[in-house]
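Appendix B. Chain record.
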Amino acid sequence: MDNYPLIVSTWDKSEIDALHEVIDSGMFTMGRRVKDFENAFSRYVGRSYAVMVNSGSSANLLATAALFYKKTNSLKRGDEIIVPALSWSTTYAPLYQYGLRLKFVDIDLNTLNYDLEALKSAVSDKTRAIMLVNILGNPNDFKSIQEIISNRNIFIIEDNCESLGAEYKSKQTGTWGHVGTFSMFFSHHMNTMEGGMVLTDDEETYHILLALRAHGWTRELPQKNFISNKSDDWFEESWNFVLPGYNLRPTELQAAVGLKQIRKLPDFLKVRRENAKLFTKKFSNHPHFLMQKETGKSSWFGFSLVIRPHIKQERKKIVDLLIKNNIGCRPIVAGNFLKHPAAKYMDYEVHSSLDNSNWVHQNGFFVGNCHSPLKNNFEHLEKTLALIEISDGKTLV
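Structure tokens predicted for this chain:
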């Protein structure tokens, strides 16, 4: 039977063997393998410091929290942060939890990242931070955004959880902000079961991240650091709490798998991009759907299809047809997050209209990409979408 799964596993025997090695060692909590994986990850992406955590959501929480504890120029409750209306829940939740005021800005219907004109008009003297989310592997236009910010005192937090390996002007995404976050959930470019990473080039921020990740204590900090006068007494420093932290630590199991996966990542990305060429050839000029327009060099998390604005068709009919034909699909992240009940708890304002975000919320979906060739899957999708006219007894237009 023809099918097109949303997700496939990237593991083979090497990951299973790595797990067994950890199990045989009897040491599961954060240790040497985590540090080795952090070093390998920071080298691959091209940043000075990496802090592994238990999920991409935790990475966003840690990245946000760290900016509140810098000695100078720290964020404060009530500060304004600009956010795209289209993203995942845990892009926004840490911002709310730390008392920031969210300003929601519309997205571009083609790139699914910020509408740059809307972003430009949204930036004000009150703006202290901008959340940049690279949607479905697609980089933001960082050059234009840097020009918008100019010399203003604005932090960039880069949520790169969906976009590991993407590049803009030969520089990887996740390296453009003061902090960049990554996810290694099962469905992402590399898979450590659960897992996330925060990267930065700022040493003070790195030390804050280390402390916050593990209870706010000093144990993982170097002797000379930016946040504590650490003594030579190992016993006292075992439980010396200097920040109100969390326990977001990963396990050695996750890191052991990560060390195997990151070696395979270049090949994973190569095949994903080859798949994207085929998908683009088939669907970039589709009469009924818009597909995401690449900015820079996407790592193609998945392939979005948004019903064109002049088309009169219910997304539900399309989704039902895809599922009936064994084609996995999902909404494009959370759509317009303000459409979700959780938004009522947040302190926010809406900048101008959110017409494009609303349209994607009601009329967008995406299908999967993976590390294996998808030529036959794309042909099955193309044939299935052609059935919409037949099943409805009318054309989409």
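Further analysis of this model is presented in Appendix C.
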